[in-house]
Amino acid sequence: MTMTAPRAPAKALIGDRTRSALRRRAVELGGLALLALAAVFILVLASYSPADPWRFNSTAEAPHNLMGVPGAYVAGALRFSIGWAGWALPAGFAVWGVRFILHRGEERVLTRLVLLLVGVLALAAFLATHAPGPGWQAQHGLGGVLGDSIVKHLLVLLPLSATEALIPVSIGLAAVTVGLVGLGLGINWGEFRHLLHLGGAGLFALAAALWWLIRQLARQGWRALRWGLRRTGEILAERRARAEQVESPPTTPRREPELRRPVLRSEPEAVTAEAELPTEPLPEPGGERLMARIAAAVQARRGEGGLAERLAASGDDADIPIAIAPDRDVWADGARVPPSGPSARTAPPPDPDAAEPAPRVVVRHPAKRPIRQSRAARAEAQPALPLGDEDDAPYDAPPLGLLTSPAAIERQPVSDDALEHNARLLESVLDDYGIRGEITAIRPGPVVTLYEL
Length: 453
Description:
Radius of gyration: 61 Å
Strand order of the largest sheet: 1-2-3
Largest sheet: 3 strands, mixed
Order of helices and strands: HHHHHHHHHEHHEE
Shape: flat
Strand content: under 5%
Number of helices: 11
Number of strands: 3
Helix content: 40-55%
Structural class: mainly alpha
């Protein structure tokens, strides 16, 4: 009997470390593939069009889907079967892709994907309990055909009417959807507590931010209210002071304007005596004789005749010479002659209506010209004999006799006053645009009226 020696175990070609590293890189590549698949599904669902060809829509038009015909078929099938719940598929692929890359719970992927699919069906049923909007063109609801079918069976199972059971079914489906989708995305108890902690912290931060905002608004409002009350008091005080000033006017007398008479000045003139006065003292005449002499002197100045004759007629003491200065004419200077008309102060104000009359617009009516006949009209009035070949003759136009004669057309003439009024309106419009002009002539025509500036 022969004995064999035990063999040593064969060496592995790849070590444990290398095997573990390769497995991790493969999982990360799988995560990248899931992210790419999620991006493709997003493009497929975002570019969905009801007119694209798929199983229940045969058309020869090119598909509008970004992924072509395959994308149109996938989008049509998802929209028909589960409706808006189809968006949960790219969301699940993206979450599991991130988990694979970060190596967080990738070992639970096989069991959780089944729950994710059930959660998508629950989401379709929850969406089916809501009424679609006015832009919804499909015959099924928001959850597709599967969502409508699930809700219909659930309403039949409950011992209530469809209207009464719809709200409880919708609430129950919402709770089931949240639980199944959360489990399908790989969330465990530790991650759930972490999410609750983050949610609580977020809510606390949001509440703190709202409280700070309310305090700031209240503080600013209080400041604005105080400033408004202070400003209102100042305004009321100012108005009260003005009212007191109006009720008790100042006692200072108002100075009226003074009217001063213009001073007329004249140059002093030399007085020449007709005779040399005696040096001896004159006898004192009586009162009556003195008055007679003064009257005679005045009459001699006003009337005609010599001074000696007037004194001789007066009586005694006619030999006393009297020198009388000539009356001073304050208006003797040519530059000081008073104006014959009213002064600037007494003259009446100028009358605006008495200004120069505006030039009248000349309306030039065009002379009536005789209506000239065209060649076609003359040819119709005196037709020519068809001596040439009729086949080579050009096309004969319809006769002009079918048209109305221009001589029989009656036009409503525009009066000259209306034309002048239009001219004034046109001048005012030009003046509004900064153009100053005056219309001097108007040439009315059958179609266009010409205004000459």
